[in-house]
Queue: 4 jobs
Job 1
Amino acid sequence: MIRNHRVIAAVVATGAIAAMLAGFGVIKSLVAAVACWLILRIGVLMLGGLARPVPAPPPTGEMRRVKLTYRCEICGTEVRMTAAPEQDPEPPRHCQEDMVMVTPVDDL
């Protein structure tokens, strides 16, 4: 693990040596070095998780997962769409009219 993050290990070792030379005890310096290593390691892992690229969209014509709910304004029939060929599909028709999307904006 240390081999993969030599910079973190070097920063922690330098800090621990500087703390010992500054007059702090060996135990306090080692505890601080371990805490510093944990904080830096977790930070690097979190940043690495954010750096993952967004996956490419599926090819044209392939079904995508959606979670949209539509309602017919005339008769009140509701339809939930779970798969569509595109992310923002055309609304379905019912009673010869386009249905109205009732999915909350937060769920889109």
Job 2
Amino acid sequence: MNDQRSAAAILQTLRAIKPELEADFRVERVALFGSYARGNPEADSDVDLLVSFKEPPSLLGFLALENALSASLGVKVDLVMEEALKPSIGRRIREEMLPA
């Protein structure tokens, strides 16, 4: 794994672009979870992000955010809306997530 794709580097980038995310996409919170948060990503791992919105986005808005985050991080992003989490998986995600 190269240093640019470490959890710390991902979180640093997310914190740097957070004002844009809030203004452009009405993002309230974003957190890293999954293999990067656990410290065991594979070379082909995507970045799993949990996101909460101030206002629910349209489908196109959601996809635009996912694409913008992928471009900013330089790796495919899998975006999950916090509001859509099922309780069983939500508990696991919340235990391992790293807020940005």
Job 3
Amino acid sequence: MSEASETLVNLLIVEDPSLPGALVCNAECAARAHGGRPLSLKNKEKDKDLPQQDVPNLAKNDDPALPEQDRGVTRIEALYLVFGKGWKIYFLWGSIGFIAFVYSLASMTTYTYLAFATSAFSTHALLGTISVITSIMASVTQPFIAKVADLTSRPWAIAFSILFYCLGYIVVAASKSVQDVAGGEVLYTIGNTGISLLTTILIGDITNLQNRGLANGLFSAPYIVTCFIAGYISDGISAYSENGWRWGYGMFVILMPVCISPALFVLFWADRRATKIGALSLASSSEARRKVLEGAGAGAEPVLSIVQKGLKVARQIDLIGLLLLGFAWGCLLTPFTISTTAKGGYRNASLIAMFVVAGVLFIMFTIWEWKFAIHPVMPDFCSIAIDFGYYFSGYISDTYMSSWVYVIKDWSDKDYNYFLNILTVGLCLFSIPAGLVMKYTHRYKWVQIFGLIVRFVGMGLMYAATKNPSDLILVWSRILVSIGGGCSVISSQVAVQASVPHQDMAIASANLALWTQVGGSIGSAIAAAIWTNKLPYYLTQNLGDTLNSTQIEDIYSSIVTARLAEPRDKVIDAYQSTMYYLLLPAFILSIVPIIAAIVTTNFYLDNKHNAIEDKVIEIRPAEETEVDALQRRA
């Protein structure tokens, strides 16, 4: 191997306090000399006015113990060679903010529409079933999306997600049956999950540890504004009517791709520019090693076929483990949501078969993860246990929360929307001061513990609302839960991303999201099982003397009908009695995340990209960056 081939390129990322979180990859070349001399700029026509400069070797030696980087990680590091201080880096952050705004607007309006979409087909009880299916889909697809981002690039993965997002909402908006609604929700969930995950990954790519919590909090800040806009939009299109929800879904088929296009433009432009000037292959030491080895003749690594690459990716994301896990949870949880409509209930042969298959699949999953998985999907992070418990208890209480409040309170559509948005707005509002505390204390553990304790108190207040559903108790319970959630959620994100090298950050983030979604799926299934068994019972008990079975079924099947039904006090009592069985276990289970938080590792949050590698983050002057990029082209 020649001296030039033996010399590797190393990555050095440094921080500039003038722009927190901005990142540029300063890939300083080691000397790739002709005759042992340091490499200088060649006298090409377009570069003839630039001075002849040696390239300094400022980087540390590559650490062979760290994992080899995928192309997508290399690309996100390389593209910042074309940025630098100036309009380009600000345009990138501005476009991320634009995504945050439209994503928050969609979240604040559309999540309430599903209850009305199912009610339009007189199948409101299937809300829990759809929630379970979409939660499982969201969980098992996240490692795939993360790996797409690693193997291709961040912008291509975002474009892939937008396609599914729009396709899903088109199907829902044009649905002619509840099956269409469910199918569209599954497609939308893939896209929506991708957008959410990839923006989290992108922020993690370009921020250091001490600023990452604050950056994630600021990304959520638009929710504070869109909360007040969402109510007017829902009112304006009569979203809570029989068919108004269709317009609510359809508008984002246009808005979402339009608002994400600036970010895609700047990311694709930067990617192309980095490739054109020769920065791509020099942005990562692992990538450089791969280039050297591929050109080293007999010692080079073999080129993998498409099938071999596919098998390699399958091992990296633990494809078999994901499939076993997804099908196991699906078979276990779905029967709980359909037991009341299945002939014979839990004695139905199909439901029994699903339980048996679920048990077999869980045994197979355990054996696979224990004995055979090279990269197990089973978590080893306390943060994942925290968020699993958080979402588990949260989905038990929240799956039918909006339906319960809509029926028992005589609020206007706008006020109803404001109440539902308290949690989301509070999560986003209080995550910003939580991020500031992390930035200046350089720790996150006690921020998270404080938040989880406050959330526990809020869950207790919500349970109390089953006896006294006053406006004061309902509103304050949601405020306290939102304060706690704002502190906890970003703490988990920072902790998980700090615990792995950059190469593994996307998969670690996906694993966090996977297990939180699994927790949510279990919570939704339990909520659906309780709702579909208890609500018909209490409606029949309270209304059986005055209404026939068909009328009671109509009330059960539609929250719009239930809100107008008489005698109203008895309908409300049935809903109150049902929610008691949802809010009590949710309150008790909310203690579990606190226990997990106490034993979590308290990483020091400094100016490094993560707690594993010695990568520090900085943005440099644009002129210096351009010269460096041209040096790499030489």
Job 4
Amino acid sequence: MLTIKRKLILGLCSLALLACQSTTAPDWYSAPPTNDPQYLTAVGQGLNLTQAKQSALSQINAQLWTQINSSFVSRDIVQSRNQSEHASSLIDNHVNSKTANITLTGIDYPQVAKNDIGYYVQAKVSRDTVVRQLRSEIEQSNRHAQAVLQQRQHQDALLWWLANRAQSEQAQAVAVRQAMLRALGQDDIPKAESIDQLASALAQVQSGIVIRVSASRKDQKSAELLAEQFSKQSLKTTFSGTPNTTHVLKLTSQLRQSTVGQAYISTQFTTLKLQGRNGNILASHEIISSGNSLTNYTFSKEGAERNFADTVSAQGLWTSLGIQ
């Protein structure tokens, strides 16, 4: 009987505690959003304060993209009515808003609340602050593109392209910021001509690279494998010298064979040397591969060749060539 009473008391205490818990969101969180001409505001909720702030910031980004996407409709109509302007198609019309969130600075959190299930915050940022940040980032990207273009004169074409090929994504990042400025009612949008020039230069350099893969007949399989890897990078290769050749990849190998018990062991030492147009060595690397067979050396050699292919695939083309 005492046990039943004890359980009853514990149950009543639990109900009392649940009744005392606060799960109601603050009034300002539930209030409808206002269209403030000076500030972008949003609210967020999370299990902790960091999650709540991130949620609010995501909502501010979403506000900008809602305005951008709605502005595309009228811009598309103008574009379709005048075919002569098609050459200057708007890159921001194809921006993926799901992956284009901007890390905004100058965020203030005037409202913060906590109850028994989480945190609530209100985030606020001045529209002028956002405009200044977007303009600054566009200008910085343009200056960086100018510096990269100047480096082109002093670097090998392939190495320059490798070091800066990711810069082509900057055109999209700049387009995102330009679109956001339009969404914020800005008419004087900063241009980034160097960004466009860099993207064009990268494409031009890539299309002009022709790599001759030089190898003896016994290394033909390895040479073909490397040619396939270059092709995946959208780079042209050839197995014979042509006037358009810009680089030479020399592949040489040594094969060592031995038996261990009943196993035939083949170990292949492959040296890769990448040379520029003038014969200067840009990179070199040695790959050691091996294979074994219980039948003969022919099968173990084929195993070493497959191991070479697996090594190149695992390391990646550029690491395999000695380019870090």
